[in-house]
Amino acid sequence: MGNNLLPIAKEGWSYIAGAILMMLVFMLLHLAFLQFFAFLAALFFVFVFRNPERQNMLYQEDSVVSPVDGTVISIEELDNEESYAYKIEIDSSYLNVSLLRVPFTSILEHVELNRGARLSHMTPLSKQLNENSKLIFSDKNSNNKVKITHILKQSFKGIDLDVKNLQNLQQGSRYGLMINGITTLYLPHNFRLNISLGAELIASESLLGYFTSEK
Questions:
Q1: HSE value, Cβ hemisphere, 13 Å, CA-based, for 67
Q2: Distance of CA 18 to the CA centre of its chain
Q3: What does DSSP assign to residue 94?
Q4: Which one of 33, 120, 135, 197 is most buried, counting C-beta atoms within 10 A?
Q5: Is domain 63-211 classified as CATH 2.70.70?
Q6: Could you tell me if residue 77 is left (phi over 0), alpha (psi between -120 and 50 degrees) or otherwise beta?
């Protein structure tokens, strides 16, 4: 996994270069109207793929931070789930930074990526057909686990993951990219939430809560 420290995520370089190339072609052809739209496209890609520097917050060892930028749209207690007690949904749009970040220092126990459709989340079949991924992070003793799923909404680009199974990961480090999607976190019974419905989250900086010694 590479931590891209440049102001633009590497996944966006080809999009920006293509828009700039088209802008130059339209300029040579004296197509001012199309040149202007190519310029706007380049600005759009710069904005969507921006990679701002994030602070390493000094939370205690058992802290869990948000893996994405977005708005908390659902907090649910799970009664019939043995491994997890809470389900949190976070909605990320084109206005949010698209980079995905590790929620706590952990080992990546499982990762999968399923390519699929990019239907509107208002479409009933979107949860079954849209592109999605699932990751399970666990601490070094496998006592605490967090499952994260990402499901794409309408987007021009698919989900990118830059991690592999059994990889050691540091809290806040970059593990992928998703533009316009829904992130769902499944948290264990010994987790204490620190967020509320409607909260605006910042990846690697917003605290979701803590693992406790209780089981």
A1: 30
A2: 25
A3: T
A4: 135
A5: yes
A6: beta
